[in-house]
């Protein structure tokens, strides 16, 4: 079972990788940054913490005052006042004295440790302490986390909630990131009706557009153009030109094969787009077309909804994440090994991405394997790689799977 005229999957990924160009840096507000890549390192604008403060609710003490404290013979110290977080204090703790202090409040002059409230007993202005405490206990010292000018998060780091929290703590409101590509989606076909339409004989309600758009949005890629177009070359050409004027990456679904009404490639050639590859030895998604017009990337994906979702995750998402600054390993889907629960067979020589459900590293193939069977895709949380030129994988064997980014795993 060989089909030498087709690219294999790894070759297709390599070609897409070679045609990906890192996007320009841009400053974006925090709410648009999660999952993007830092284009500039984050450095400390000052010492962290900015001042020495208490790590606990308790009492600021001089550690030497408690050196002989025991449960039966506690040290008794007088409280000179309370220091709340967010306040400045001029209080001075001297021998035999202590100060009540809240978490995050600045340490008073003279004190060198904090005893937790639960380790004390208070009666009026007298607090009993039942054990010694080391100097510096429960104290956050100025600059102990970092000094002014220290590098805190390196360029090319994926932006997580922790990164955003740190940036906000440092007084920032935006981050320098590699700008996400603007996306255009074109759904083709005389038979396709937009969501919410009344079903007509011979027609179908579109599943591909909503699925593809939601995948892009969940991956933080802005969809700036979305259009349905009938199988009419003039209309198709006009819509493609409009999409190219508005977006960086254009995704066209349908018309990618060799049928009588598959006009897309002729239209792309007519407007000057360059074909880089067409047809990959994979299932689903064999007739995927990839090309460029100047600096714009164009994908023509097969029309079946499962094929579109799978090829989006395999090819389009990979390119878009490479443009964001992800390295080639991280740009693709997470890859793990799992034990196959049910035997798989096929007669096609192509690499097949079988929809599956993985749990505790055991993966169950979904029976609905057809590229128009959305119920199988809807329940999947992974893709099982059924290797090219392999006809059977037995239950119990280890298989390579790709984790879908949305789903229970």
Descriptive notes:
This protein has 409 residues and is α/β, with parallel strands linked by helices. The chain folds into 4 domains: 9-23 and 180-331, 3-Layer(aba) Sandwich (Molybdenum Cofactor Biosythetic Enzyme, Chain A), CATH 3.40.980; 27-47 and 154-179, Alpha-Beta Complex (Molybdopterin biosynthesis moea protein, domain 2), CATH 3.90.105; 53-140, Molybdopterin biosynthesis moeA protein, domain 3 (Beta Complex), CATH 2.170.190.11; 334-403, Beta-clip (Beta Barrel). The chain has helices at 9-18, 161-169, 208-218, 233-246, 264-270, 305-324, 328-331, 374-379, and strands at 25-29, 42-43, 53-54, 58-61, 75-83, 97-101, 113-116, 120-123, 126-129, 139-140, 151-153, 174-178, 183-188, 192-193, 204-205, 223-229, 249-253, 274-278, 282-283, 289-293, 296-301, 334-340, 344-345, 351-359, 362-365, 382-386, 392-393, 398-403. The chain has a 6-stranded mixed sheet, with no helix packed on it. Strand 24 (351-359) and strand 25 (362-365) form a beta hairpin. Helix 4 (233-246) packs across helix 5 (264-270). The radius of gyration is 31 Å and the shape is elongated.
């Amino acid at each position: 079972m060989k089909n030498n005229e087709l690219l294999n999957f790894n070759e297709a990924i390599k070609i897409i990788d070679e045609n990906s160009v890192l996007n320009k840096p841009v400053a974006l507000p925090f709410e648009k940054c999660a999952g993007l890549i830092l284009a500039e390192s984050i450095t400390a604008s000052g010492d962290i913490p900015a001042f020495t403060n208490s790590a606990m609710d308790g009492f600021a003490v001089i550690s030497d005052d408690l050196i002989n404290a025991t449960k039966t013979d506690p040290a008794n110290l007088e409280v000179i006042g309370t220091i709340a977080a967010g306040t400045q204090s001029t209080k001075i703790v001297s021998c035999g004295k202590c100060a009540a202090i809240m978490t995050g409040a600045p340490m008073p002059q003279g004190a060198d440790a904090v005893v937790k409230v639960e380790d004390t007993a208070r009666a009026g202005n007298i607090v009993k302490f039942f054990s010694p405490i080391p100097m510096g206990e429960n104290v956050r010292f100025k600059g102990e986390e970092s000094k002014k000018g220290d590098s805190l998060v390196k360029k090319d780091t994926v932006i997580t909630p922790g990164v955003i929290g740190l940036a906000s703590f440092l007084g920032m409101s935006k981050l320098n990131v590699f700008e996400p590509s603007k996306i255009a989606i074109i759904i083709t076909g005389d038979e396709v009706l937009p969501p919410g339409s009344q079903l007509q004989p011979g027609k179908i309600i579109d599943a591909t557009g909503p699925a593809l758009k939601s995948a892009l949005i969940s991956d933080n890629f802005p969809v700036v153009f979305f259009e349905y177009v009938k199988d009419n070359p003039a209309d198709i050409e006009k819509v493609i030109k409009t999409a190219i004027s508005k977006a960086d990456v254009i995704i066209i679904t349908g018309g990618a094969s060799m049928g009588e009404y598959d006009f897309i490639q002729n239209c792309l050639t007519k407007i000057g787009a360059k074909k880089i590859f067409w047809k990959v030895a994979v299932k689903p998604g064999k007739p995927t077309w990839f090309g460029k017009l100047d600096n714009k990337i164009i994908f023509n994906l097969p029309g079946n909804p499962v094929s579109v979702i799978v090829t989006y995750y395999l090819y389009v998402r990979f390119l878009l994440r490479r443009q964001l600054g992800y390295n080639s390993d991280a740009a693709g889907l997470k890859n793990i090994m799992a034990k196959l629960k049910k035997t798989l067979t096929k007669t096609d020589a192509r690499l097949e991405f079988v929809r599956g459900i993985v749990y505790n590293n055991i993966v169950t193939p979904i029976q609905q394997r057809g590229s128009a069977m959305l119920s199988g895709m809807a329940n999947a949380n992974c893709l099982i790689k059924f290797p090219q030129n392999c006809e059977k994988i037995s239950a119990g064997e280890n298989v390579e799977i790709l984790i879908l980014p949305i789903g229970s795993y």
